Amino acid sequence: MAGKFCVSLSFAKDNTDKATVAFVIANAALGSDKETIVFLTNEGVRLTQQGYTDDVHEEGFAPLGELMANFAAGGGKIYACSPCFKKRKLDDQSLVAGVAVVGGAKLVEFLSDGAPCVSF
Q1: 19 in helix, strand or coil?
Q2: Which end of the chain is more exposed for a tag (fewer CB within 10 A), N or C?
Q3: Under a CB-based contact definition with an 8 Å cutoff, are residues 41 and 10 in contact?
């Protein structure tokens, strides 16, 4: 892959438009042959849970769950901030495909070579 790309997302059902667009951009980066991660923080970590996105479908876009599944199937990695995840008492046995719960050092490592990052 030629280069890296990061999408940082801190929203879930509190702003489904931003959550959806973040995964649209992430899929576009994958389609452009970028090694792509989505780093979930704050409320965004709720997207890691199976069934959570079942009712999220912004007009004009594919359903959020489908966008996330396509991203993971295409080789994208979804990292969830461990302290944010633990604070919300989420279930690490109910993760959707492609998710790993990690510390902030994983994001720093990915970005340290100058990878661009957009935030939602």
Answers
A1: helix
A2: N
A3: yes
Residue with tokens 């489908």: 66
How far is residue 88's CA from residue 115's CA, in Å, rounded to a whole number? 29
Judge whether 48 and 99 are in contact, CB under 8 Å: yes
Task: Please say whether the beta carbons of 112 and 2 come within 8 A.
Answer: no
Hey, where are the domains in the chain? Answer: 4-119
CB atoms within 10 A of CB 116: 12
Q: Strand 99-102 vs strand 117-119: parallel, antiparallel, or unpaired?
A: unpaired
Residue pLDDT tens, the chain, 120 long: 469 999 999 999 999 999 999 999 999 999 999 999 999 999 999 999 999 999 999 999 999 999 999 999 999 999 999 999 999 999 999 999 999 999 999 999 999 989 999 999
CATH number for the domain whose boundaries are 4-119:
3.40.1260.10
* CA atoms of 45 and 31, how far apart (whole Å): 24
